[in-house]
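Hey Z.,

So I finally got round to the iron/sulfur cluster thing we talked about over coffee. Here's the setup:
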Amino acid sequence: MSLWKDIKGTILPFWVTLRYLFRRPVTVCYPERKQTPAPRYRGRLVLTRDPDGEERCVACHLCSAACPVDCISMQAAEREDGRRYAAWFRINFSRCIFCGLCTEACPTLALQMTSEYELATRELLQVIYEKDELLIDGCGKNAEYNFYRRAGIGVVAPRGANPGESSPEDVKSNLP
Amino acid sequence: MNDTLLTLILIVIKLGLVLGTVLTLAAYMVLAERKILGRMQMRYGPNRVGWGGMLQPLADLIKLLCKEDLIPQRADRWVFMLAPAISTITALLAFAVIPFGAPLQLFDRSLPMVICDLNIGLLYLFALSSLAVYGVALGGWASHSKYALLGGLRAMAQMISYELAMGLAIVPVVMTARSFSLTAIVEAQQSLPNMLRHPLAFFIFLVAIMAESKRTPFDMPEAENELVAGFHTEYSGMRFGMFFVGEYLNLIVLGSMLTVLFLGGWYGPLLPGICWFLIKVLGVAFFFIWVRGTMPRLRYDQLMAFGWKILVPLGLLNILVTAAWLIWRG
Ligand code: SF4
Ligand code: SF4
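And the result:
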């Protein structure tokens, strides 16, 4: 009986492959037919602005610390009013593995992922993006969040004046 | 004198035609295989170069020619360079004796549709397929790499074992045709192809040539998962290409052998002989591709056991039974 099973098990697959030969392929022919990635697709990174139109990035280096392949680099600088920003900001997309860890690490929601995936090029230097190429005009996925409005102490509002904050305690007043 | 010259010219023309057809066929066989396997797995296969991928073989050729041709530092240079040629040339030489059609009447003379009608054609074919083992074994040995060596060894053991079964399978065919000439063997099948007359021999031969062509499910020598790529691991560029083309040439040779020995050669209704021959060879090739798309790779010990413990005894038994039947019929 087992021999019969063996013979059947050998013959039957041939029928299966023959049937599949006449099925329509499921392949998506890419350059002709493009697919829209899911909203949370991890594509090219961008730097966003806050609702006031100012740069969100405060050059805290958290993203470059979180990046497993070390492809983000920047230099921090400070404006007159004490607001920090990145003097230059560089992402080397030829090394990026699009893991999204940098966006998780970013406390200001400045760094965000987009669904753009067509980065291929023959010029290696073209996939090293500088700040002016990364910085976009909008807020990205969160249109309300404004880091400096919440914690930008002494830059946007005096201490304790941000929404949901109480003014600082005068430590001298509660001495014994 | 004039007659000899004419014969010579005709032979050269035939040679050129056969060589051209066979090489083009081999190139497009690669494409066909990739496309058919693709469809069986619900993908398209190559479809970018030319019309629906029709120029893919050309693109492959250009790519192979432009690639760097490496020779490992401690390889045996000459053997390393010769091995792929042996593989390809043995396959090409086999076409010398394969008859493509019934003799043609031209210029008041009979023109045989075979380059050279040897009366020991079958033995010649077998001698060549034994030589083909050298290409693989030497390629594996000369590369100075463990993977290649193991692949070559496996290939050698497998090809020699199955060649035995192959030899035994055709003895009944020779006995009924009473000749070693391939033309005579085909002519003996005018009424009934050997496939129906000797079904067991047909089965043994089919399995044996599958093993001989080193394709799935008998692709032990190349077993990418275990051996990187087997005997041609160290080859690159056109040298690899020659092994590769050799494999497909071999596929056509074996398909032609199967056609000539068991499928009735050029005989068939309606169409001219040469068309039937081509249809049969392509059919066999399709079957091979189909098997490759269906069957998983065998285990090496199972492969050897199957060859020695099942095919060889069956082949011997088949010879005995055929002989007894022939004697009984007188
Ligand atoms: S997505 Fe991952 S690899 Fe790319 S920059 Fe961010 S952390 Fe680095
Ligand atoms: S992008 Fe975000 S994590 Fe990176 S430096 Fe700017 S604020 Fe910090």
